[in-house]
Amino acid sequence: MSSLSALLLQGTDVVSAPLSSNVVRLILAALLGMFLGLEREWSEKSAGIRTFSLTSLVAAVFALVATESALGVALLAVGAVLVVVQGILLAVNGMLEEGSGLSLTTSMSLMAAYGVGTLVALGYTLQGVTVAVVSSLLLVLKRELHGLAGRLDREELRSTAEFAILAFVAYPLLPAESYTMYGVTIDSPRVAWLMVVTVAGIGIVNYAVVQQYGGRGIAVTGFFGGLASSSAVVGTMLDHVRQHPDAYRYGVAAVLLADVAMAVRNLGIAIAFTATNTALLGVVLPLGSLAVGGVVAAWYAADWGEQVDIPLESPFSLRNALAFGFVFLLILVVGTVAQSRLGTLGLYASSFVSGFVSSAGATTTAVLLFRSGSIGSTAATVAILLATASSVLVKVLLGLAGPRQFTRSVTAWSLGLLAVVGVLTGVFVVVGVV
């Protein structure tokens, strides 16, 4: 009886013992490998969920052993060689069975799974998860990526290469330290250029989405079209409602969703580039409310039976990227000088005016000034909100050129949203939540 009690007590100790970090890493590696193998399993490839999961798990085991002994390093290297050999065999087998030529996707995916397991086991969890997610997206979006590549002409391909060179070759050449202009310290030019490239990248991604799914519904037309170019959305909707006055509800909803896209983009810029400092959490409630309210308003306003294509100008253009960079630089200089000469009110005025041209540029300017310590979180938050509000108002002004019903609805919904967001923000400020 005493031996049985001892066994039960030992079992209790095992169950209550916390999982070690190594065990958690092994489990995570296997799960990420399984995640990578889902698409291959769905596509009925020879390597599926189990193969990918085991590949990541074996890599994690070898990597953990490698941290303790030289034998583990050898095992990790041998495992990598075996994965490469297995990938080659799978590629040749696929070519013989399908007769459609050499396909290396599954082979490269297995190598990615091995790399993910290694990264996770060595403690690079975020990097491993990032590789797994990006690799999975590349597998799932095969049709969309091939379709986009097929629609690009030679000029766009050349411009893409030029933009990539300018974006990623110029980045390390720019100074990383801050500098002072008119007595105001500006954050590093390298960070400023990264923000320009980020905004340009958002435009490219959303151009691809609209090209692939454009005309298939108001969500794509308004939201993703608005992320690529909100002015293009308004212009297209004006033309559409002039030709089809009865379809004005579709146009109103598209404009509202363009506002939602703009708010989400500005919120993302404000949070992402201040996460390492004290994040600008004050923008979350106002911009989040504008985004949610815009979606609700668009839902009620939309005519879901309408479908419209938006002719967007290709973002695969070095000229367009440099044009945005110039606008951003101009807004940055104006905002800096205004803040230096006129104080916080000067910054607010320049942000509001800049929002009529580019709320993204005004937002990045406020973020850079905040990062450098030139302005506080309150001033940066107000500047971003003013730029966002003026961007909403400029769509109202552009909408005045449309039919009466369209103009009236856009004005009412837009001003109503701004009023609700303003009241909510004011209430939360008073009670001390924001």
From TrEMBL:
It is a multi-pass membrane protein. The keyword Transmembrane applies. InterPro entries: DUF4010 (IPR025105), MgtC/SapB/SrpB/YhiD_fam (IPR003416), MgtC_SapB_SrpB_YhiD_N (IPR049177). It comes from the Archaea. It is found in: Cell membrane. Its main location: membrane. It holds the Pfam family DUF4010. GO terms for cellular component: plasma membrane. Coiled coil: none annotated. This is Uncharacterized membrane protein, DUF4010 family. It comes from Halogeometricum rufum.
